[in-house]
Amino acid sequence: MVVINGSYAQNLRCEAIHGPSGTTLVTDAPADNMGRGESFSPTDLVATALGTCIVTTMAILATRRGIDFSSATFTVEKHMAVDPVRRIGRLPVTIRMSATISGENRTLLERAAHTCPVHKSLHPDVDAPISFVYE
Fold it and tell me: Sign of torsion, CA 58 64 70 71?
């Protein structure tokens, strides 16, 4: 179990403290929803969690199998929906990796990406496709 404590810091900002490490995170409402957009919004954190979870899950497999995953990068696009309510509608993720990764290891890594706990936790109405680019 991990405990995260938080507080409202005024002006549509919140502060959260990660219990195990003491790291502080500040969120801000997005500019298109009455905020200043000066930090991650709560929905930005969902997108960030998805990208980092996918890459971390893949890196765990890569580490166990001795696959060089050091150049991997990711991009997540957050698309909001407004009907019937404001929510995250789409989170396409692109993972970029070295072209030197073998076909067998690509299959293993791509399979691992789809086991990410954040991806598995998203509501089925959130479209979250994962694309893989080897360059």
Answer: negative
